[in-house]
Amino acid sequence: MKVEHVQLIYDQLPCYVTSINADGIPTPPQPSHHSDLNPTPRTYTDPTSQMPARHTPYICSIQTPWAALCLADTTPMVEADPAQVRSSNSHEGRFIFWPPELRRLTAVGSEIQRLNDEILPFIQSMTRAHMFNIYSSVDEPTPGSFLKIVASHTDSSIAASFLGGAYATRDELLSHVRTLNSRLVAARAMHDFALFEALDACAVLGGVELPVWPPNPLYTGCWVRSAYRGATDVDETYFLQARARKLERWGVPLWYEAGRRMNRRYDVGLDGRPVSAWRAMEQDHQQRLTALTRRNPPISVKAVRIAAGYRSASRPFCYSSAPLPQERGVRQKIERAISALVDPDSPEMKTFDAFNNDMMQLLGSGVWSGRKHEFRHHHSQINPGSKERPRWLRIRDGVQDSGHKGALLASVEIPNTWYDPCSYPLTFRGVQPNFGALSRPLELPQPAVPIMDWYVVEVAGFGKDAEAQARGVFDAYRSQGALGYRWMLCKVQNKDEKGRSIRHSRYQVELLFKSVRAQGEAASRIAAEYPDLLIVQTAYAGMDAAWINLFDLPVDWVYVAALFNRPLLASRRQELLSLAPPSSVPPTRSDGVSPQQRAEAERAYLAKLCHWDLFEYDTNYPPSVQPTSVSAATYTPAPFFAYTSTSASTSASASAVTLHGVAQDMSQLTVERFTDLAFAPLPSDSSLSDEEVLRFQRLALVLQACKRRAPFSSHVFASDGAPYRAILRYVANIVKQSSELPGYVFQSGGRRQNIGPWLEMLKMKADGKVEVYICASAPLDSCSLPSQDDVDKYFEACNRENRKTRSEKRRKRLRSAIPEPSAE
């Protein structure tokens, strides 16, 4: 054998491979330490057996604990028909999926949508209970991080984004179907991981033995890393060993590599594999390789591990037990029982004794024994009347990946359910539940949505005269997140006997959403209610105002976009959405409405928004005016209803106060900082109530919508029960305290006496800066009331104000900036 041109020498390390829960499974290839020379195959099989090919196991990782629970079956969960691949008309030389095939893979009724409906409700329930605490080397783990991973893997809009693209080759396009399969397999594994993890935490909460599952060859399994000898630091190895014990108890196949000492030899091969030879030839070969390693410079050496022997091991388990049920009905019963035990927002609450009986029936006594944990070891320490809670002799295993505080405490201290099984376990806050006290259920903030990202549900198949029915579909789903709709022709029309399209034969309604979750739920319900209609879910990113204006929008879309751009609780979003100002602007393509008429309607709407809807003068808080004589009762009110306050009529001092006083303090900040103040946590010394904070956030969102009308000024009139004067005074105090920081400007009224008297008002400049004119230190009780004439003058001044929108002003400035052509 010639070795003159050899570049690498491989140090062969024989080892033993120990398998756990893997009887009858062929030994998989070991993870390669040099993937560039000997990559690990995706699948493997044993040529000596009749078993089908299996997926190659992963290396145990603390970042992805569900990887070992992936199914070993290589049959794909979804398959694409290669005949449905077409050449793109808009992208020459590229390939796309035919729209019906794309809908089959990603729309309602697809496998990804089915998994989304099955998995997400249980994961959301466990997230409310802080059940998961997945380790991350980059970000700090949060209760909702696992939920985000599951939601991204089962998000049909994400799947449609990479399957709906145009690619250079057919193979590249079909490779994304394999990517979709990998995401679905991972989502299914995450579902099993969540069930296993939740059952372990429930067992710890109840003080019973952890469930022990039989070996399950359906799982891919994983290779377990060996622990370093003499390691003193608690590092990644500790977590891996704890997870290996957990996977072993779950019945997952494991493989472990143990090195064999004092048996090394040097073999050479271009691919890094050992070379077989006769004993005499090998001895001569080793001498030559030893000489090569002593060269100057020496030949580099890399290690290659080979299996020198195989051993198997298994933990005791009940042979009458069965693996984790796969039937949907049984799983739903298990999930409902877990949620009733630990979810604070569950409509049903279970004692641990009831939960224990349910698990023994659903899982069997072989898996869930229900026996108390280490009973005989603690008989001398049990003292229910002691103030100090007795502890376990050894910290209980099974909750290393759990964030449930009650389960973590129960792994150290003997829980109350160990003494009294008919009691309720500790909550995720680590306290005993008190069902007599009223408390707001735990909610997780919903993620922020970019301003111009929208989600649409297309409901196709209506007749030409079915627009009223389509409007009824929108009205039925407004309470579930539908924000607007538009009636239009379908992209695909009916065909006659000769295969020709029948023009204007099919219409569709498009429902506009701002939440992908609301979009998916609405699509599923519409598909169940209207099985004859075609349902398509579409995501639009980075759209412009022209596209939004095609929809019939009952509320202001800028207000809605700014609302969903903030990570808020779902209940708070719903409260603010109910306070959204109603929009009266028709769509751009409306029958009988010309562009000039629509522009006039938009101007009138924006004027009403900035001057009346801003402080809810026309709805909840009309202005209070000074009492008038009987002869003035025939006064025709302004579009917002002005009324005489009953409290003002009994106060002679209030009516005697003149409306014009000294110059008010001026506080200036940008509308973005105004919005940040509204949604930021309040300081401890704040006097704003919960209702005032809600109106504060509404005011900030309406100001975002009013940017289209800037510049403008709006008077702050007194009104019974109105919170806006208190809100503006809070803003003025914040600006006054932060006036030394850039972006905040405060001018006291004493320094501004030369400008004369000034009303309490809010102004917005053309550059989006908000100016609040109110005395930051004045009490809110004494306030001047306007007369009916003052309200009339304000109404007339608003009508005389320039009605041009910001876009019209911008176009005028651009036209004026263009130089006129010379006379030459």
TL;DR?
The chain has 824 residues and is of the alpha+beta class.
Which characteristics define this entry?
824 residues; alpha+beta; 6-stranded mixed beta sheet; 5-stranded antiparallel beta sheet; 24 helices; 21 strands
Q: Provide the structure class.
A: alpha+beta
Average pLDDT number: 78
- Strand content is 5-15%
Distance between the termini: 91 Å
Radius of gyration: 35 Å
Shape: globular
Low-confidence stretches: 1-5, 229-234, 437-442, 629-638, 640-661
- Helical coverage, percent range: 25-40%
Number of strands: 21
DSSP helical segment count:
24
Q: Please describe the biggest sheet, giving its number of strands, its sense, and whether it closes into a barrel.
A: 6 strands, mixed
Secondary structure layout:
Elements: E1 8-20, E2 43-44, E3 54-55, E4 58-59, E5 85-87, E6 95-97, H1 99-106, H2 111-128, H3 145-153, H4 156-163, H5 170-206, E7 222-224, H6 236-249, E8 254-259, E9 265-267, H7 279-293, E10 300-313, H8 328-342, H9 352-363, H10 405-410, H11 416-419, E11 454-462, H12 467-476, E12 484-489, E13 507-513, H13 516-529, E14 534-540, H14 545-548, H15 557-564, H16 570-578, H17 595-611, E15 624-625, E16 643-644, H18 646-649, H19 652-656, E17 666-670, H20 671-679, H21 690-706, E18 712-715, H22 724-737, E19 745-747, E20 761-764, E21 769-773, H23 788-800, H24 806-817
Parallel strand pairs: 1-10, 4-7, 7-8, 15-16
Antiparallel strand pairs: 1-8, 1-9, 2-3, 5-6, 11-13, 11-14, 12-13, 17-19, 17-21, 18-20, 20-21
Helix pairs in contact: 1-4, 2-3, 2-5, 2-8, 5-8, 8-9, 15-21, 20-21
